[in-house]
Design a protein that fits this description.
The chain has about 375 residues and is of the alpha+beta class. It has 13 helices and 15 strands. The strands form 6 sheets. A 4-stranded antiparallel β-sheet has the order 4-7-8-9, with no helix packed on it. Strands 3-2-10 form a 3-stranded antiparallel β-sheet, with no helix packed on it. Strands 1-11 form a two-stranded antiparallel ribbon. Helix 10 runs antiparallel to helix 13.
């Protein structure tokens, strides 16, 4: 059930006989009480207007039993009602599509329902629509303090008022639209990123998957050859910076867990060795390659050729691990849900953070491939 209020109320002042008009968008309905009765709960709704000349004006609706309008009552004190609103309870239309993304179409296709909505109800619908399509950039948007903050690689930043106006200004009252903006921005956040349901995010990931499919077979060795003969056209772009931030975050997470090479050829960690642990020359080569890649990526002009060569050595280390369990590099990588051409994620998934270090190494290889593809404009 929803409360509808239509028309204009006209009230005559008891002394001056002046007739005042009260408009339907001035009424804000709230639940003010109710009791448990024989056929269930009774709910009392009330709208209150504090008028400069008429004083306290109240409109009330009783819902009892659930889903049934019991009575309505208008109280204007000593004044006289010339004509009242048409107001009460009515059933909300059944919609084929209830997701917030379809709100504009529902409002346009059901004007009587849209008109009947109280401002509070409409504001809630607008706020739900916004949060369905937009999110705090802290959720998934890469951040780089040196570049001035968030890198909106999927689109944005978006502004609540601009987005609501662009979608609803022609069909909702200004007061409701601005009340929704105020509520959305109440926590002090004014720049928003697209949520995974926003078309900009959908397009971003579709493009990433398409690029991954096309470039998966490009090896690090081939990328090293390309980097040696062609300029790194993608260095400095927003996409490259975002991918670089991701790689550096993954390197940091990996280095925290990578065993330390032992000074006498032993295994450099304190827990028992497993069959497919990196150790000895493989561990030293992997650690040195990771350090070299990190050094390049923190510089102002990283060398794609060096990164590709060192990434190739890391892939060899992964191949050594894979061989210990009698599988291929590709099969080993896919066991962690990654391929060596996978697009760089915008954040390190919690599942990866909880995985053993070789899983983080697999993820790093995929992100390095993605960074190289961006840098070389492939």
């Amino acid at each position: 059930m929803i409360i509808y209020t239509r028309g204009t109320a006209k009230i005559e002042h008891s002394v001056s006989k002046e007739i005042f008009e009260i408009f339907d968008d001035e009424l804000e309905w709230e639940v003010v009480g109710g009791d448990e009765r024989g056929m269930g709960q009774e709910t009392i709704y009330e709208a209150f207007v504090d008028h400069d000349d008429l004083g306290d004006l109240r409109w009330s609706i009783s819902e009892y039993p659930l889903g049934v309008e019991n009575f309505t009552d208008t109280n204007v004190g000593v004044h006289r009602i010339v004509s009242d609103f048409d107001y009460g309870l009515e059933h909300q239309p059944d919609f084929d599509e209830e997701e917030p993304i379809g709100l504009r179409n529902r409002l346009k296709a059901n004007p009587e329902w849209a008109t009947a909505l109280t401002r509070g109800s409409l504001v809630k619908l607008l706020v739900d629509w916004f949060h369905y399509l937009y999110e705090d950039p802290a959720n998934e948007t890469p951040y780089n303090g040196r570049e001035g903050g968030y890198l909106y690689i999927k689109g944005g930043p978006y502004n609540a008022e601009e987005e609501l106006r662009g979608n609803f200004e022609d069909i909702v009252p200004e007061e409701a639209l601005m009340a929704a903006v105020e509520e959305i921005q109440s926590d002090g956040l004014f720049d928003w990123a697209p949520s995974p349901r926003h078309q900009a995010s959908v397009a971003f990931y579709e493009d990433a998957v398409a690029d991954d499919y096309q470039q998966e077979e490009v090896s690090f060795e081939k990328l090293s050859e390309i980097a040696a003969s062609e300029p790194s056209a993608g260095i400095g772009s927003a996409e490259e910076k975002a991918a670089r931030v991701t790689v550096l975050e993954q390197i940091s997470a990996l280095k925290d867990e990578l065993p330390k090479p032992a000074s006498h050829g032993g295994i450099g960690h304190n827990h028992p060795p497993e069959e497919f642990e990196l150790h000895g020359d493989e561990l030293e080569e992997a650690a040195a390659s990771i350090d070299a890649i990190e050094a390049e990526l923190v510089s102002n002009d990283p060398s794609a050729e060096v990164v590709a060569k060192k990434a190739s050595l890391l892939k060899d280390a992964v191949g050594w691990v894979a061989g210990k369990i009698n599988t291929t590099v590709d099969a080993f990588c896919k066991s962690f849900g990654m391929t060596l051409g996978a697009a760089a994620a915008v954040a390190i998934p919690a599942a990866i953070l909880a995985s053993p270090y070789w899983a983080k190494l697999v993820v790093l290889l995929g992100s390095l491939k993605s960074w190289l593809l961006v840098v070389l404009a492939l």
